[in-house]
Every structure is written in C-alpha cells, then in structure tokens.
Write a structure and sequence with these properties.
Chain A: Keywords: ATP-binding, DNA replication, Nucleotide-binding, Nucleus. The complex is a heterodimer of chains A (about 450) and B (about 675). With about 450 residues, chain A is α/β, with parallel strands linked by helices. Helix content of chain A is about 45%, strand content about 10%. Classes of the chains: A alpha/beta (about 450), B alpha/beta (about 675).
Chain lengths: ~450, ~675
C-alpha cells in the first residue's frame, strides 16, 4: 500500500487520490507538498527539479497542481521560443487574455513585471500562484536577464508566486556567471526495475489477467531494461509486442500458466524489436503490420539499410578529395599526389602526435585550394574549373556530406570538413574504381 | 537628365516605368530587319511548337514516372488520416506513444528536379486529401530559426485561408490579417484555428457545397501536411524543436510530415537524436533513380522519328556529360535541349524545313532563291550533287524549280532514314545490351552516340559484340530475336516490314535447328543476323544523308560554353587580354603582354602575377606608376616619369580593391604593408 501523502490545508480525499496516481514518486511528491506548504502560505520563490526523461517530473508537478486546484501556468520552453511568447502565455494562464493584451510588442522583462504587478493589484493572490517551465535548459539561450529574473520573481512582483523549473540537466550547468538567486534543488532519480515493473503492470490489458500482463512486463524488462529506462518508450514497446505474446494463447497452443513456453516464444521477437522498432529503423505501424502478416522471414529493411547515395561523377571525386584532405596531414600530400616524390618513408615524416590514427581523431578542416588541388590530381581526366564544379561543392555542403567551417565569407579561402564515414567513402570510390586505401595515410 | 540644383550632390533618377516596360518580343530576335524573306517568323513558330511539345511530353513523362511513388505516398497519407479519425479508446491505442506519421521521400541528389515532384504532390494532396498542405524550404526558415519555420507554417495555412474565403473580393487586404495574427505565433493558435475551420466545414457539409465530392471522413478533419522540401538543409535544432512541439499537439491536430531527402534515409538518424526520432513513425518511399529517368526522357524525346529536330553526336555527348558528371538533373538536360533547339532555329535559316512532313514539303515549295542558294552551299547537298550525272548536276545548280523538287525528295528520304534508323538501333541495342562487358554500351544512348559518330559496323566493339553473340545459347538468341521482332512490328515502313518478314523466317529456321549442329552453324547464324538487319544500310551516320544540316544541330562548343560556364577563365581572360572583351584596337597586343593603356585593373593584375605569395604594396604601386606613365606618353628621361601623384595613387588603390573583390588578393596580418595572393601560378 503506498504511503499516504500528508499536508495540512488540503482535502484528505484528494491527497489519497493523488497518492494513488503518483506511485513510486511518493517521496518526491511529499517533499514538494511540504515545500508548497498550505495554499495561502508563501512558498519558496523558485524550485529547480531535475531528473532523466520520463522520470515523472512534469507528471508529479502537474498532477499536484491540477488535482489540488491551485492557480498555475504550465508551459514548455520549446514552445515559447521567445520571451514575448513566454510572458504572454504566463499572463494568459494566470490572469486571463486581457492581461496578455496589456503586454507591448517585444515585451521586455520589466514590461512583464509591470503588467504582472498591475494585474496582481487588481486580483491579489489568496493562494500561491505557480509558474511551471518545462525544458528550462532552453531559458539559458534566451536573454541573459530572464533566468535570474524568473528565479526571484516573487521578490520582483511582490506576490505569492513560485517558479518551478523542470530540466534534464543539473543546476550546475545553469548557474549564470554573474550569480543569481539559488533555487531549491529537487532530484527525481531513475525508476528502479521493480518500480518500472510496478508502474507498467498497472495498465493491464482488459481481456487478460493482470498476472499474465505482469509476467509479460517482466519478460519485456528482462530484454529492454539494459538499454532503455524510459517509461514512455517501454510502455509503447509493451503495447506493440503484446499481441505477439498472446498469440500462443489465442491459438490455444499454450495456457496462461505456461510462462516458460510463452517466454521462449516471445523473447527472440523482443530482441528483434530492440534492433528495429526501438531504434526507429522500422516504424511501429510497419512492425505491427509485419506481426499480422507473420512473414518473419522477409524482414523489413530498416532505414540504415538504404545507405547508398548516387552522386554525379565529379561529385564523387570531390568527395573523395575532401575525405583525403580531411584525414591526411597536409605535409603528406607531396608523397601521395606528386609523381616524383622520391622515397619518403612513413617513419621519416611521422611526427609524434600523428602516431595516433587520424581516423580516431576525426576529420580536420582544409581550405578550398587544397581540396581542388587534390581533386585535380585524383580525377583521371582534365577537368575545366567550371561553375558546375564549384556549385557541386556547395551542393555537397547542403547535402551535409561536407561541412563549411567558420565564417560565412566565401571570398576569403573557405574551409571545409568532410562529414562522411570510411565505409561510405569506400563504397563511393569503388564505384569509380579508385583505390582510396593507397592514398590514405592511416593505411600506409 | 538635368536638375535645377546649384549645390553638389547625388541625385536619384528613378527609371521611367513606361520606358522600361517596352520589352522586345522574342519573335523579333528571329527576324532580321533588313531581310524579311528569311522566314524568321515561321522558324520561330516551328521552334515554339516543338518546345511546347517537348515540355508537355516531359511533364507527362515525369508524372508517369512519379505516379507509383506518389500514389503510394497518397495511400499512406489517407491511411494515416483515417487512423487519426478512428482513434479508439482501445487499450493498445492508449498505451502506445502517439507518434507523428512521417513519410521519408528519398528523391536522389538531383535537387533541381524535385520542384516538379513536390508540385505534383501538393496538387494531388489538395485535390484528393486535404486543403492544408504546406511546403517549406530551408532557405525560407533561416535567420531567427524556430520562429521563422513556425511563422511560415502559420502564414501559409491560416493566411491563405483568410485570403481565400473572407477577403476574396479585395486581395490587397490579405496582408493585414497576417500582421494581426503574428502576435500569437504559436501552435496553440494553429490548434484553435484548425478547430474553427473544421467546424465550419462540418456546417458547410450539411448544405450542398463544393466539398461534397470529397469523402466524408477525410472532410471532417483533413490532416495538416507539412512538406520539408530539402530536409538536409534544415537546421537540425529547428527540426528537433519543431517535431517536439508538434508531438505535444498530435492528439488535437492531425499533423503529417513529409521529408524530402536527397541523400539517404540515414540522414534522419544523423540529424535527429533518438529522443526526437522516437516521436515519429517513419515510412520510407524511394523514387526512381535519375539515370532511369534520363533514359526514359532520351527514349521519348531523342530516339524517335517523331521529332524532326535532332542532336548530333557531340551535342548529345555534351548534354549527357553535364548530366552524368555534374548535376544528375533531368530538368537541366531538358533545358539544354531547349537551348540547342532555340539556337538551331535561330542560326540556321534552312531550319524552316525542320518540321512535320507535310509542312516541310510545303515550306520547301515556297523557298526563295536566296534560300535555295544557301541550300546549294550545304556540304551535304554539294556531295549529293557531285554524285549525280553531269547533266543532272547542271540542272541542280541552275534550275530553282528542279532543286525544290529534289529537296522535297531528299526530305522524304531523310524521314524514311530516321524511321528505319531508330527501329534497327533498338534491335541492335536489345541484341547487345545483355552481352557480358557491354561491348557496345549498356544503354541505348551510348550505342546511338557511336552510331552518330562513325560507321558502327567498322568498329572493333561491333566485332567483339558479334563474336559474343556467337557464344549465346540457342534459346537466348531466339528470345532476343523475338524481342527484336516485337520492336519491329510497330514500324510501318516497307523496308522494316521486309526485315520483319526475314527475321520471322529466320527465327523459325533457328528453332528447327538441331542443337547438335548448332556449334557448327553458329558462324552462319550470326552472319544471318547481319543479313537480316542490314545494319550497314540503316545505321549509317546521318552526316552522309543529304540535307542533314536542316535538322541536326551540331555546334557542341556553343552549348558547352553556355551550359558549363567557366567564370574564372572568363575573368582571367578579361584581365590578361582586355581586347578579347573590349574590342578596342589600342588594346591589341602580343600574347602575354598588356598594353600600358589597358584598364588599371588589368595592369595591376599583370604586375601581381610576377609576385610571390606576399606582395609589397609600395613596390606594386611604383611599378604601376611606371607603366601608367608610359601610357601618358611622358618622356622617360624626365623627372616626372614614374612619379606617384595623387590621381595615380587613387587609381591604384581602386584597382587593388577591385582585385580583392574578385578574390585574387586579400590583406594579411603577417606583414602590414603587404597583401597575400590567393591564386597561384604566374606568367
């Protein structure tokens, strides 16, 4: 039986009901309740709640606020991508649309405070007002005064208001260099396996017994717990694969009690799900379709199976040249691309820091000149430096096969990086009969 | 223009609108002012009708090729729409995370061609699924990223509706409501709008309206389809946030995404982390490869006797090379074809004969004396004349009436030649395209190009292809020959009928051969094939046909110069040989030198070529002053000679900054009074 939430000032029945819906988060919920205090009491100005995805942060906070019918404004910072939008939404939720209309266009923080005070004077708070901001890490990218301002909003507007920030990132990454009011920190730890089991088992399929469903969840967690602890994702996966689990029961091949048999049937299926539908290689609709068709042999090709890219002939060579320029040290170009380079042994021009594989270090930027010089030496025919060659470079950039580095000034020797993998470039060079291994410093 | 102002200053003269509007009709370019009997108008109208035909044909072709992928995409969207509607309270529906249905449309790297595909996609969507289909492009959503994407979306969805319904009578008002709506640039506003619109639709449905033809369930809540035309070019963060926002509203708003992907579906995983891609339900749609597309276009537009206009081997080579080596764009290929067409009709007066048979014969009858003289000058016609009897030669050279008759006959001949040529070409291609190592090329266009260039039966490749044919098993040979018979059947010319007859007899003969003797008779077999198809007479290059100049366009250099421009070479030519562009006699010099009266930038450019990577500005200025003084005609011994005055200094600085603008030099931090060269090589 879950621990009962207790806090004076709130109706008992509602608290009991809350405790029911906030399973495995009783500790956090009661801490929060304790912080909030009685409705009319002043609460702490700002609370910062962090924890991984799907650990019940928003769920707990919003359940408390809605169930206890406290005045609140909840929004996600992804949606309110500008401060104007954020202020508007907050005022709309707390005071109604006429308050939001008072905000001038391009409202600053002081405009917001002014309107808030104005509204507040009209309707003074008899209960603590709450402003809940999800994905609060995005506040850091907005104006510098926004986050510190929100943290001490209570003081600024002189009202009984509490700002609750929710994020997946720890507070240390938020703290502005100029310092600010420190919020109370509250951590939501990951659910343990047992907790996940408990929560997931609650929503059992109506046509089957809860025990069967619970054993199914057990099998599912056995497969997926090592890779995924996201509650939402696990529930999704459970729903997708449950019909497969029940198939032997439907066909009369097994009883509900034959857990081992059921496990043997469903486990390989779940493993396959982990490699396909979990990674979104195959969409959930396709996955269900496949289950229905029972054509397991003709497995669907995932997204990454279609890695092949067709490119025009010179684009291929440009990409090869870019790859060489990115992964070979510039000093070695003479060795690879000059006909009479003399004998240079690898050990002779090997510097200490270059002993590690360039492929481990990742691509290095190179100037356009070098790219073209290598291009002209690897391409087998004489190519005029036409406009299409240059436009191919920029289309490679838009296709994200090359990346443009640094400033946008195209005149001043632009620099690029090659953004394709070794396998990709192998495949490309095979199609043009170019033995790229002979030109790569790492494979010498 | 004058002003009545006494003070010094800048005055802006806005161009006179009336003056500017007077544009030259395209037709006028075809008509010579002093020569009105050159049939310019006729040529222009033939050219235009041919282009119209090419355009509609390619559009039809494109639609046919895209039909499959677009149909399956539409199917997918309809399926998703109906699943939005019957969102039941079933257990599995409640448990499943609600994902945004997403179609990943892999279209290949030929980005210029995608526009047409997206256009037909959104047309189809508007027609049969939803009025709310929006396409966005990455370049529209740059700058303040997130808000721009959302703003574009809202504007296109809501703005268009506003102009359509309420402000129909006054289009100038359409800007106003957009401005008002800008304030609530959030998806919440979109939700409200959507609810209002669908409610209105429901009411409209009760009364007989224009939407009644649509299916009921689609009508009730049509999905909002957002098409990302160039997925790769979008900022990943913008996309991630957008998808995240959409997923929060998916219960209220039936959203559907379409990603137009140019490379491979892997980019989705590169751009979106698992936390975001898990919000999507992605289905893959792969389009035909562009090389297949090109093959069909060539097959329908070039390898057909239907079009009187033809490309020579070299021209076709240029166009195909641009396609294969540079852009993979079928649209650009067709544009190149258009340029060739225009240029042919513009530059060749006799192209008036390059049209449909009846029309061409009529035009031949009307040819003026001047044109007939031109006709007589054609190399192919001269060769033809030389091959005739002396008496006939005289007549051909003197009698206009006779030439007209002969011309008509030759035009008929060349038509027949084309008809036979393409049939036999297809036969040869189907015989050889499956041979190991493709001695005559894999695609029919390669075979076509080599046939245009030379006598195919004299080449080594042809020999080896015939050798390989010998090694074919009897069944295979018979099968390919039957395919040839199918190709020949629609050809209606007399010659082709006889070839078909012979071929059929030959197939019967082959089938009756005892397999034991087949090895002995293989040689006969293949000579038999040669005899049946008479490649020698049908596949001769068009250059041997009299009057081929009328319908073949052959200046590949012009096309290459215009389609595959070399800006850098042009700039260098302009700088090193100013005469080339300015055509001023004073600038004419020997190769490698620049006249001292050349424009400043040319002199500066020439001087900078002699320097290394870093250029001392002062030395450069001195050298410049010396050269310019030479142009002023000063006495080399006087003190003034080579002296830097204010004017020269200013001119020099201007020229250097022009060079900097062109990307030849830039300032460097290594030495303050130096500039760095950005090009290498010198004189």
């Amino acid at each position: 039986m879950p621990a009962v939430l207790q806090c004076p000032g709130y109706p008992e029945a509602k608290l009991r009901c809350l405790a029911e819906s906030l399973q495995c988060r009783e500790v956090q919920a009661s801490t929060l309740l304790a912080l909030m205090g009685e409705p009319q009491q002043y609460s702490y100005p700002s609370v910062f709640i962090y924890g991984h995805r799907a650990t019940g942060k928003s769920h707990v906070v919003l359940a408390l606020l809605t169930e206890l019918e406290l005045p609140h404004a909840a929004m996600s910072c992804v949606e309110c991508f500008s401060r104007g939008l954020l202020f508007e939404q907050v005022l709309m939720a707390l005071f109604g649309p006429e308050a939001a209309a008072l905000l001038p266009r391009c409202a600053s923080f002081s405009d917001f405070v002014r309107v808030y005070r104005q509204m507040c004077a009209q309707e003074p708070a008899d209960q603590t007002r709450y402003i809940v901001l999800e994905r609060a890490e995005l506040l850091r990218n907005m104006e510098a005064n926004l986050l510190p301002g929100l943290l001490r909003l209570q003081e600024l507007v002189d009202d009984n208001v509490t700002v609750i920030l929710l994020s997946e990132i720890v507070w240390d990454k938020f703290r502005p260099s100029t310092g600010c009011f420190e919020p109370l920190l509250l951590h939501f730890p990951d659910y343990t396996k047992a907790e996940l089991q408990q929560i997931l088992s609650r929503h059992s399929h109506p046509s089957y017994t809860p025990e069967l469903y619970s054993s199914y969840i057990n099998i599912l967690l056995g497969v997926f717990y090592s890779v995924c602890r996201d509650l939402r994702e696990l529930r999704h996966l459970a729903a997708l694969n449950f019909t497969k689990f029940c198939e032997p029961l439907e066909k009369g091949e097994a009883q509900e009690s034959d857990t081992h048999k059921l496990w043997r049937r469903v486990e390989p299926h779940l493993k396959r799900a982990m490699q396909t539908v979990y990674l979104r290689e195959v969409s959930s609709v396709q996955w269900e379709q496949q289950q229905m068709d029972e054509k397991e042999a003709t497995a669907l090709r995932g997204l990454s199976a279609h890695a092949h890219v067709e490119l025009p002939y010179y684009s291929k060579f440009l990409l090869i040249a870019a790859y060489l320029a990115s992964y070979n040290p510039a000093r070695t170009d003479r060795r690879f691309f000059l006909k009479h380079h003399g004998k240079i042994k690898k050990t002779n021009f090997l510097k200490k820091h270059e002993k590690t594989s360039n492929h481990l270090l990742g691509p290095k930027p190179f100037p356009l000149d070098r790219l073209l010089a290598i291009f002209y030496s690897v391409v087998d025919s004489r190519v005029a430096p036409t406009a299409s060659i240059f436009s191919q470079i920029s289309s490679l950039v838009t296709l994200q096969l090359l990346t443009h580095i640094g400033h946008d000034d195209q005149l001043d020797t632009p620099k690029y990086k090659c953004a394709v993998s070794l396998d990709f470039i192998f495949a490309i060079s095979r199609t043009v009969n170019f033995d790229i291994v002979r030109y790569l410093y790492d494979f010498l | 223009m004058t002003t009545s102002s006494v003070s010094k200053g800048c005055f802006v003269f806005k161009p006179d609108l009336k003056k500017r509007k007077r544009t030259v009709d395209i037709e006028e370019y075809f008509v010579d002012a002093d020569d009105d009997c050159s049939y310019g108008r006729e040529r222009f109208s033939i050219c235009r009708s041919l282009w119209e035909k090419i355009k509609t044909d390619t559009e039809i072709l494109q639609d046919e090729l895209n039909k499959k992928i677009l149909d399956s995409l539409l199917e997918f969207i309809k399926k998703c729409t109906s699943s939005f509607q019957c969102r039941s309270d079933e257990w599995s529906c409640l448990m499943r995370a609600s994902e945004i249905p997403t179609a990943a449309l892999v279209l290949g790297v030929n980005v210029p061609d995608h526009d047409m595909t997206f256009q037909s996609l959104s047309d189809l969507l508007q027609e049969s699924v939803t009025p709310f289909a929006v396409s966005v492009q990455a370049k529209e959503c740059s700058g303040m990223p997130k808000s721009n994407l959302m703003q574009k979306l809202l504007e296109r969805l809501m703005g268009v509706r506003v102009t359509e319904e309420e402000y129909e009578e006054d289009p100038s008002l359409s800007g106003v409501p957009l401005q008002q709506k800008r304030v609530s640039c959030s998806i919440g506003a979109l939700c409200q709008w959507y609810k209002a619109v669908t409610n209105k639709h429901k009411h409209a449905m009760k009364s007989p309206g224009k939407y009644c033809s649509l299916e009921n369930d689609v009508l009730q809540c049509p999905p909002i389809v957002v098409i990302f035309k160039d997925f790769e070019a979008f900022n990943p963060h913008v996309l991630q946030d957008f998808i995240f926002i959409c997923s929060r509203y998916i219960q209220e708003l039936p959203l559907l995404l379409v990603f137009g992907i140019a490379t491979s579906p892997c980019t989705i995983q590169h751009m979106l982390p698992h936390s975001v891609s898990s919000l999507l339900c992605i289905e893959l749609f792969q389009s035909l490869s562009c090389t297949q597309h090109l093959a069909t276009v060539i097959d329908k537009l070039i390898l057909t006797a239907e079009f009187p206009f033809k490309l020579s081997g070299k021209v076709l080579q240029v166009l195909v090379n641009i396609f294969l080596y540079h852009d993979f764009s079928v649209r650009n290929f067709v544009k190149g074809l258009q340029l060739a067409l225009l240029e042919h009709f513009h530059s060749q007066p006799l192209s008036v004969l390059c049209c449909k048979k009846k029309h061409a014969l009529l035009n031949a009858q009307k040819l003026s004396h001047q044109h007939l003289e031109m006709l007589r000058q054609l190399p192919s016609f001269m060769r033809y004349v030389e091959a005739q009897e002396p008496q006939e030669q005289v007549q051909l050279l003197t009698s206009d009436k006779y030439v007209k008759e002969v011309c008509q006959k030759l035009l008929k001949d060349i038509r027949k030649y084309h008809k036979n040529y393409y049939c036999i070409l297809r036969c040869l291609s189907s015989l050889t395209s499956s041979l190991p190592k493709y001695p005559l090329g894999k695609h029919i266009r390669e075979l076509h190009m080599s046939c245009l260039e030379r006598n195919i039966w004299e080449t080594n490749e042809y020999e080896s292809a015939i050798q390989l044919l010998r090694l074919l098993a009897k069944d295979e040979l018979v099968a390919t020959l039957k395919k040839c018979a199918d190709i020949l059947k629609p050809c209606k010319t007399k010659k082709m009928n006889s070839v078909l007859q012979q071929l059929e007899d030959y197939i019967v003969k082959l089938e009756h051969l005892d397999s034991k003797f087949i090895w002995l008779r293989k040689t006969d077999c293949v000579t038999g094939i040669k005899n049946v198809f008479v490649f020698r007479s049908h596949l001769s290059p068009p250059e041997l046909q009299p009057l081929h100049e009328v319908c073949y366009y052959s200046s590949s250099g012009f096309l290459r110069q215009h389609l595959n421009a070399t800006p850098r070479t042009s700039i260098q030519t302009a700088l090193s040989q100013p005469f080339y562009y300015l055509q001023n006699e004073n600038l004419k010099t020997d190769a490698g030198t620049v006249s001292s009266s050349a424009p400043d930038i040319c002199i500066v450019y020439k001087l900078h070529l002699e320097c290394g990577r870093l250029i001392n500005l002062y030395d450069w200025l001195e050298a410049y002053a010396t050269v310019v003084s030479g142009a002023e005609g000063k006495d080399p011994d006087s003190e003034e000679y080579g002296k830097v005055d204010e004017l020269k200094h200013a001119r020099f600085i201007k020229a250097v900054s022009e060079l900097e603008f062109l990307g030849f030099v830039k300032s460097t931090k290594q030495k303050t009074d130096h500039v760095a060269r950005l090009t290498w090589g010198g004189c």
